[in-house]
Design goal:
Enzyme class: lyase
GO biological process, one term: tRNA-type intron splice site recognition and cleavage
Subunit structure: Homotetramer; although the tetramer contains four active sites, only two participate in the cleavage. Therefore, it should be considered as a dimer of dimers.
Order of helices and strands: EEHEEHEEHHEEEHEE
Structural class: alpha+beta
Radius of gyration: 17 Å
Oligomer: single chain
Largest sheet: 6 strands, mixed
CATH class of the largest domain: Alpha Beta
Number of domains: 2
Keywords: Lyase, tRNA processing
Low-confidence stretches: none
Number of helices: 5
EC number: 4.6.1.16
Length: 170
Amino acid sequence: MKKPIEFYLSGDRVYSTREKAINQLYNNRGYGELKGDKLFLSLIEAAYLTEKGWIKVVDKDKELKFDDLMKLGKSRDEDFDIKYIVYKDLRDRGYIVKSALKFGSHYRVYRKDAEHSDWLIWVLRENQRLSPNDITARARVAHGVRKNMVLAIVDEDGDVVYYKVEWIKF
């Protein structure tokens, strides 16, 4: 994209009414959520697209840079940084990444042009504790909605390792 598309901060999201945003980002690349004539992006999507130079975010006539969006995200979610690392890794690999809060996970991940997601991603820090009940509950939900449960573990260097968790019925 040549000139960044302008988006406006609105609470914990950003939006644009520009047709270019809707066509290039939503229709062609699977970013955001379309509501009426507005394309809404999460802060993580906005940070990613700002870092790539595809959009610019404005709040009260002030442009928010990538670091500003990361700081804003971190102020609202202490795990924003690691969620961003995983989001960026998956997007850079060519996947479509959407929220999976209604499934009790962080992300739903789609192959490009797929109608349904294949994976539910739960993001964790390397030293974060996770109980067997947490793992079982997430694997059970994923199995129930015909998705693969994946734990995305982020180490202190920002590297991500993915572990598939399966529900096996004997």
